[in-house]
From TrEMBL:
PANTHER family: ALDEHYDE DEHYDROGENASE (PTHR42804), ALDEHYDE DEHYDROGENASE-RELATED (PTHR42804:SF1). Residues 13-459 form the Aldehyde dehydrogenase domain. The active site is at E245. This is Aldehyde dehydrogenase family protein. Keywords: Oxidoreductase. Belongs to the aldehyde dehydrogenase family.
Amino acid sequence: MKAHDGHYIDGAWRPAAGQDGIDVVNPVDEQVIGRVPAGTAEDVDQAVRAARAALPAWAATPPAERAARLGALRDVLVARKDEIAETVTAELGSPLKFSENVHAAVPIAVAGSYAELAATYAFEEKAGNSTVYLEPVGVVGAITPWNYPLHQIVAKVAPALAAGCTVVLKPAEDTPLVAQLFAEAVHDAGVPAGVFNLVTGLGPVAGQALAEHPGVDLVSFTGSTAVGRQIGRAAGAAVKRVALELGGKSANVILPSADLAKAVNVGVANVMSNSGQTCSAWTRMLVHRDQYEEAVALAATAAAKYGERIGPVVNAKQRARVRSYIEKGVAEGARLVAGGPESPREQGYFVAPTVFADVTPEMTIAQEEIFGPVLSVLRYEDEEDALRIANGTVYGLAGAVWAGDEAEAVAFARRMDTGQVDINGGRFNPLAPFGGYKQSGVGRELGTHGLAEYLQTKSLQF
Ligand code: NAD
């Protein structure tokens, strides 16, 4: 795989300040496929200075011209979609079809949506005797995870550029190659120098330096709750804006009137896709006690089918973490009906698609985010019980409700403390606001709500 040995700063690939590098490993065969620089505080400082210097001109660029650059960016991503898919497959390990259909296709759709929004959004509005201008918040520090590596980048960078902000990106250390490809695409799209900058590196070094840099006006972070808390604290102390997309433990609520087989099969597919490394995955399936054993049998059969189809998890640490949760599930008395902690293959960071039955709401595997191909099936007595269980975690990112009647499902969904609910298998919509209630985060991404995160208002009274 092609890797740059510098950082993309102020429109060119610049030599890194330090000598250290990060090896990129293919999780399927554990082979090193590339090496990128481990950025330092000095690299981050250079990048932030470039972003600040570029801010006035980019903020003053007419939205139609910003839209044209985003349209060009989308076109470059389309032209390089096969390379994107191959790169994500190499560094994340996801099957190539999934990389094509999701890891490449979704960011293209999101970049396209912001090209359109930038051209049509009202950056000026009237309120009584005032004119309200929606102005860019300034320099954005974007810190992204590895699970949907290009999507997480585009979900931050595209709205930031549409708003007139400039950006410094610190991507996840496991998946920096697609981030470098993205920087090339931004360059080829004719985005002016300094508007977008990339520094690869370790979270506690480059990430922390970016989050704490006084030249950054907004930190947009996606990743673990532990790091999110730390970033939120630092941003609070500096009185700077922060957007946090954190973990989830979403509920898939199957009401008794639902098509049980469909709800279970789609639910299992949702959890196993991307090897369970999806923050919005429905990792808790809630089934009425009268249908419980039937649902468990269906889920076990469905999970077994994924055995050969899913990729590995991202690295050895993540595999160890997922396995320890599976062992904890067994130790706390849950019934293993598919998969288990043993590795299904000798090489690669694979975890068997795993399903637990007899999971009770207070068990660790029903409360904590596992981030692997592990589903917990819980039993409920009645609708009120289902709602208590669904809302009974610190998280509130996503969820699903299935019922014979759409109105019945909607009525239940409206009582859930969560930011997104799919009704009877409703599809992902890149224009719908994505973000969490409770400890799942602060702020929203995608669509107009995602754009609003990068804008601040200035009111002029007449
Ligand atoms: P992480 O939070 O450590 O990493 C996410 C990003 O933050 C990476 O770019 C990382 O380099 C950076 N980072 C790490 N420490 C930092 C610091 N001190 N200051 C600034 N930036 C820092 O997540 P991880 O270790 O990659 O994954 C751990 C767990 O996080 C997973 O098992 C999963 O539960 C959760 N996770 C959630 C999401 C999500 O989309 N919500 C994504 C990835 C991981």
